[in-house]
Amino acid sequence: MDIRNKSGEVIRTVEGDTLRSADLRNADLRSADLRNADLRSADLRNADLSYADLSNADLSNADLSNADLSSADLSSADLSGANLRGADLSGADLSNADLSSADLSGTNLSYADLSGANLIDARGLIELPVGDQRGYRSFAVEHGKDWLIFAGCRKFTIDEAMDHWGGTGYPDTERGKRYVNAIGWLSKKLKNE
Predict the structure, then answer these.
(1) Phi-psi domain of 119 (left: phi exceeds 0; alpha: psi -120 through 50; beta: other)
(2) pLDDT (tens digit, 9 = 90+) per residue, 8-35?
(3) What CATH code is assigned to 1-123?
């Protein structure tokens, strides 16, 4: 099977007609066209999949730990049960993706589109109950012993987030209060676990 970039050039050939359980560790698959690909249980650790088209791909139970998926199209992809620990998902399109039971610990979700994504039982990630009228979904992502807060283009530690949204300089005090309350809720939740 030939893996092609968006220009149609072959960038890697893999034996067989499926990529299921394929060993693609450290592979350079930048801009690869992998739409609808069957990558179930594939080993993609440390692979460079930046700008790849993985829309509608089946990546269930795949190991994508420390992979570069920045600006990748993962819309409607099945990532259920996938290991995404430490992956770079900045700017990725994860709209309508299935991330149920995926491990998202240490992932970079800056600028990622998670609209309509299924995050039920995802590990290492907690959605914050903010209700931002701008349409942002806000998340806390486990990062080692700490948690990082992602909201739109913002990425903060918990203390930095409290300073940002709770500070006197934040322009929308009502929105700021909602974020501060959500972070307070998160802090209580983390203490009780």
Answers:
(1) alpha
(2) 777 777 766 678 998 999 999 999 999 9
(3) 2.160.20.80
